[in-house]
Specification:
Length: 166
């Protein structure tokens, strides 16, 4: 296995850890247990769950899309699975698992809007990777690894600064 491929796998694993921490655990350690009530499941896309004071909270929708773009990119870079449509279904499956975990562990509300926006993010990532590979050809994986590594370090640094400030 090429060194860049190993580094891509390491970055992918780090991304998945951060994604679980952000999406499921909401940037922190939450309590899990019988004392927490299960929130209802929202089956209405872009309904009341995205409203804040009667207005659509577009920032949460955009954040969900952005959070899953790297999933589509990593799945495509690593060719997991081989077919692009299957990568999008994998993003859908990951999103469903996260929503089910939030509901089952009573640490968040399961929401169809999140599933839709997360899957859209995966789709964008798959498409972006296709364009990236066309543009950079054989150097695409190396360039993507560098960009992902820098973004991961910046994200963790920003969170650390915010955590220490509070």
């Amino acid at each position: 296995m090429k060194k860049t491929r190993v580094f891509t796998w390491i970055l992918f694993a780090a991304y998945l850890v951060v994604l679980v921490w952000v999406i499921v655990f909401k940037f922190g350690l939450v309590t899990i247990g019988p004392d927490r009530a299960c929130l209802p499941i929202n089956f209405v896309p872009f309904g009341a769950s995205v409203l804040t004071n009667g207005r659509a909270d577009v920032s949460e929708i955009i954040a969900n899309v952005i959070a899953f773009v790297p999933l589509g990119l990593f799945l495509s870079m690593l060719e997991l699975p081989k077919k692009p449509w299957a990568r999008i279904l994998a993003g859908l499956a990951v999103s469903l698992v996260f929503e089910a975990a939030e509901y089952a562990l009573a640490i968040g509300s399961a929401d169809i809007t999140d599933v839709i926006t997360n899957t859209l993010g995966t789709l964008i990532g798959v498409g972006a990777c296709w364009a990236f590979k066309k543009l950079f050809k054989k150097r695409a994986e190396l360039i993507a690894d560098i960009v992902f590594a820098v973004l991961l370090v910046l994200f963790l640094a920003a969170y650390t600064v915010l955590f220490l400030a509070n």
